[in-house]
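go over this record:
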Amino acid sequence: MARTRELRPIHVIVQGKHMDVTPALRDYAETKVGKIARYFDQIQDAQVVLSVERRGGLGKAQVVEITVRGDGVVLRGEDASSDMYASIDLVVAKLKKQIEKYRSKMILKRRIEESRRKARLHSSAEAALRAGPPGGGIVRTKRFAMKPMTQEDAVLQMELLGHDFFVFRNGSTMEVNVVYRRNDGGYGVIEPEP
C-alpha cells in the first residue's frame, strides 16, 4: 500500500494589478501554487500578483509575480508571456527550481555541520590519545560503520574532517582502504593486497 504525504494547505492570495482576476484564473493560480507544498512543506503562505504590462518583444505581456513565505524563507519568482496561464506555469517552475536549490544547500549545510561536529569529537579523542598514559599503550578502540564510497568522496571527507588520513570502504572493490595526504601536497591510497 502506497503512503501519500498529507499536504498542509497553503494560504494563497491572488491579486490583480490594474486588472480583474477571473474565478477560473484565481482557481488555476491557487491550485498550481498550492501544489508547491509537495516540494517544500515549510511553506505557509503565498502571494500571487497578476498584471498586464507593455514589454518590448511581447507587446502586452501577461506578468505573474509569486512570493512564497515560510519558516524564515522567502522565495520569489516573476515571469511573463503572451498567456497568463503559461506565465503562472513558468513562475511555478522557477519556484520549484529555487526550492530544490535551497533544499540542496540545507542538506549540504547539515552534512558539513555534522562532519565538523564529528571532527571536533575526533580531534579531542586524538588529543587524549597523544596525551595518553606513559608507555604509549592503546587507550581507545574506535568502531564505526563504513559506507562504500569512491576515493574522491573519501578525500572530500578527509578534508571536511581536517585529518591527514581517512579509512573507508572502496565502493568498487568493497575492500577497506586508507586515503592520506602526502608531504608533496597530493594524496595517496593504501589498498590491501589480495
About this structure: The longest strand covers residues 59-70. Residues 84-131 form the longest helix (48 residues). The CA atoms of residues 67 and 145 lie 44 Å apart.
